[in-house]
Amino acid sequence: MATVELDNIKKRFGGTQVIHGVSTAIEDGEFIVIVGPSGCGKSTLLRMVAGLESVSEGEVRIDGERVNEREPMARDIAMVFQNYALYPHMSVRQNMGYGLKIAGLPKSEIAAKVDEAAALLQLEPYLDRRPRELSGGQRQRVAMGRAIVREPKVFLFDEPLSNLDAKLRVQMRLEIRDLQNRLGITALYVTHDQVEAMTMADRMIVMNAGRAEQIGTPLEVYERPQTLFAAQFIGSPSMNVLDATMQDGVLHLGGATMPAPTTATGKVTVGLRPEHAIADPEGPLSLTVQMGEPLGANTLLHGRIGDGSEAFTISLPGVHHATAGERIAFRVLPENLHFFDPETGARID
Amino acid sequence: MEKRVTFKGWLLPLLLIAPQVLISAVFFFYPAGQAIWQSLFIPDPFGLSMQYVGLGNFEYLLGDPYYRASFLTTAVFSTLVTLASMIPALFLAVVADRLIKGASVYRTLLVWPYAVAPAVAGVLWLFMFNTRVGVVSWYLGLLGYDWNHVLNGSEAMGLVVVASAWGRISYNFLFFFAALQAVPKSVIEAAAIDGAHFWRRFWTIVLPLLSPTTFFLLVVNVVYAFFETFGVIHTITAGGPQQSTTILVYKVFADGFVGQDLGSSAAQSVILLVVVGLLTIVQFKFVERRVHY
Amino acid sequence: MTARDPLVAAAPPLKSGREPAPGMVEKRGRSLWLSHAVMILGVLIVFFPIWLAFVASTVTQSEIIRPPMPVWPGDQFFINYKNALFSGVNVPVATMLMNSLIMAIGIAVGKIIISLLSAFAIVYFRFPGKTIFFWLIFLTLMLPVEVRIVPTYEVVAGFGMLNSYSGLIFPLIASATATFLFRQFFMTIPDELAEAARVDGAGPMRFFWDILVPMSRTNVAALFVILFIYGWNQYLWPLLITTDPEMNTIVMGLKQMFPSGDDFAHWPTIMATSILAMIPPVIVVISMQKLFIRGLVDSEK
């Protein structure tokens, strides 16, 4: 059980800076997801917490103690790798017990802890198999088991589900979350998949180009994205973004005008989630449909907004038959409009 | 491809690499340096002092008809060994590749001679062609052919070539067979459906697909003929008759240890060094992958 | 035996109304038997010298010196082999066998150990002079012992290592081939494995022993086969540095059994010794055939 604090963490590889100062305080037992596109520095950040990369500047604290200079082992963390990194020549039992063996625990104690973790993960039938004799999901569990037996202060997950097929991924998502809940161990979880982030996180860190764009609960990020990047990265299908103008408290958008509750004036960037469009023959906005995607529970309609040429997507509940060229009028509740500074991408309230 | 370096410290890796570096320094670099150094001197007739002669040893060597003859001998020898070991191996591999059952049995049987040391191979072939007791020379005698490799230089060359090539057939067979097994059967079948007959398919499809293996084996066999056949020559002919089987490596030995001409032997070593270097470059450049024993 | 005929004969009938059966291109009937016949003939020809040596090791000297010698084994097997093993010519062959065994195992084990260590250092650490050491080791690839025999001999003589096992072994374990092989293999091991070991609390040497060495088992075994044969088959080097017959290896000692001058060599003993000289490497190759072929193809291609 532990808190983790990141205090203005920076990372340089040679001359290039890849992490530009990330700070956050993670509470005991919290599940934090670091999410972002590939190359955003999320894995590097995690590896710095693990002690696999050195910290160029700033401080990593676990339970209030600076751990920058400590070996991974001495940080009392456990890590689950993307490719699981199981020792191929060891049995499942040996894989899970290896860390304890190095720590010098007596054999009987190791066996007890391994059995306990195996029971938790339903791995008992496989304890004497080698990793190559296991399925992807089973290997994933062994990697988890290896982390659990150590009873670490912090779990670190580096894209642990990306090698699994979609169905298994959903199942493991729940399992990991459930396990972490029961054990109450603080966890940092890296993924590029925003659905994973939304469903698993207590709080998430949305990263882009080495910066934390926003840190908050999934709903906070969804409802009040702090930057244009966070707005577009979280949510599926992703948020529509349009150039617009604010004049005297009136928004000029896609050939229509509407009142808008914002302090912004002049040119603004407006974000509008597809699922917030409400079909309404009287609505001020309209979509010229190019293509429809019926998903069953809802229907995605892709096209152009108004008479303009900007691509736009709306999501309407239920089945909706629309033909190409059809024009669909809709409206949006003012509170569902997001305003961003066109220069900096920062949110304007 | 670089690895993420995962362990810290510099003393441990230096200790780990030390045995290899130390042994290489003592038994490789120092002797190689000595060879280069000694090649610039000649000992006086009493062996008491060394006289600096610059490139004199090299000039002398290159003007020496015996040395030039040894170059030619080496060229002939290595060409013949390479051909005599590769052609039968390719032939056997092609035939074995056509068999669904039993191919691995033949492979097991054919792998034997690879394990036989060149010097032992030399003794086996010497025994068969011995002028007094040899079975083969006796039957040749019955046919009216008087075999005597002790006196006849061409016969001596023929014998060391065959004895050297014999064990290599196994080796080359293994590589050709593995390469043939890797040729996709669909390619062959497609060609068969197109109406190409076996012989034609072999020339136009199989052989080109084998060319990386062939080239690799070519280089490796030349290296073998140059440097690893000493045992065969020493046991069968000792370089004779009249130096007709004295290849370069044998001459380094003969001049250095038997003739005690250290300067010349060292200069020959340096020339061989250059030859090895060139062969290695060829090998790396064209064969990409490395290392041979 | 000519190269052409069996192949041409094995080709399918020129004209037929049937479609070729996929997967069965020319692998039936007469041509199949011909292929087997060719292979058997090839094996017989390749084996003939070994067979003859075996026959010669089972007959008497007088049967050999009156050509043609018999082609079937005689009844002198035990006498000849006993004579070779325990009396020999200059020294009992048993002694030479032991010397060869020590040399071959020494070279194989020594090379494997120093190569594992240096490959580990090169792949898993960053240290001053790494590039230089790497290239120094690389250069030794290009220097077979045959090329630098005189100065190497002087070095070994200077250390007083003539007629010693260390003199037989050390100059031959320094080549870089095995190091490169292990380096190549280590490069294919995912980085995460070393990182997982670090997270588990393993230091570098612990990782080396617990993870890297066990994972290299097949490579080590394959390399052992090749290096054993390399060491066993050495000729020139033992010839130079073992002047004491007690230190002769069997492969070089074989030649020493021939008398100088015009005397008849004692062929049954010599041939028994040849057979004895072949047996260990052949056993190693046959028993580890799969590994050996893999090692060969890995190390050379």
From TrEMBL, chain A:
Signal peptide location = none
| CDD domains to which the protein is assigned, alphabetical | ABC_MalK_N (cd03301)
The GO terms this record gives for MF are: ABC-type transporter activity; ATP binding; ATP hydrolysis activity
Q: Which Gene3D superfamilies match?
A: 2.40.50.100, Nucleic acid-binding proteins (2.40.50.140), P-loop containing nucleotide triphosphate hydrolases (3.40.50.300)
Record GO biological process: carbohydrate transport; glycerol-3-phosphate transmembrane transport; glycerophosphodiester transmembrane transport
SMART domains xref list: AAA
- According to the entry, every stretch annotated as the ABC transporter domain falls at 4-234
Query: Which Gene Ontology cellular component annotation is one that this UniProt entry carries?
Result: ATP-binding cassette (ABC) transporter complex, substrate-binding subunit-containing
Q: PANTHER family, alphabetically?
A: MALTODEXTRIN IMPORT ATP-BINDING PROTEIN MSMX, SN-GLYCEROL-3-PHOSPHATE IMPORT ATP-BINDING PROTEIN UGPC
Family indicated by similarity: Belongs to the ABC transporter superfamily.
Q: What is this protein called?
A: sn-glycerol-3-phosphate ABC transporter ATP-binding protein UgpC
Species, as recorded: Thalassorhabdomicrobium marinisediminis
Q: What is the lineage of its organism?
A: Bacteria, Pseudomonadati, Pseudomonadota, Alphaproteobacteria, Rhodobacterales
From TrEMBL, chain B:
Entry keyword annotation includes Transmembrane:
yes
Q: Does the keyword Repeat apply?
A: no
Q: Which GO terms describe its cellular component?
A: plasma membrane
Residues in ABC transmembrane type-1 domain copies: 71-283
The protein's location, in the record's own words, is:
Cell inner membrane; Cell membrane
Q: How does it sit in the membrane?
A: Multi-pass membrane protein
- Output the superkingdom of the source species: Bacteria
From the UniProt record, give one GO term of the biological process aspect. Answer: transmembrane transport
Pfam families for the chain:
BPD_transp_1
List all membrane-crossing ranges: 12-30, 71-96, 108-128, 156-180, 201-227, 266-287
Xref: InterPro entries:
MetI-like (IPR000515), MetI-like_sf (IPR035906), UgpAE/MalFG_permease (IPR050809)
Q: Which UniProt keywords apply?
A: Cell inner membrane, Cell membrane, Membrane, Transmembrane, Transmembrane helix, Transport
| Function per UniProt | Part of the ABC transporter complex UgpBAEC involved in sn-glycerol-3-phosphate (G3P) import. Probably responsible for the translocation of the substrate across the membrane.
PANTHER family named among the record's database cross-references: BLL4140 PROTEIN, SN-GLYCEROL-3-PHOSPHATE TRANSPORT SYSTEM PERMEASE PROTEIN UGPA
Family listed: Belongs to the binding-protein-dependent transport system permease family.
Q: Share what the entry says about its subunit structure, partners included.
A: The complex is composed of two ATP-binding proteins (UgpC), two transmembrane proteins (UgpA and UgpE) and a solute-binding protein (UgpB).
Task: Report the protein name in the record.
Answer: sn-glycerol-3-phosphate transport system permease protein UgpA
What organism does the UniProt record list as the source? Thalassorhabdomicrobium marinisediminis
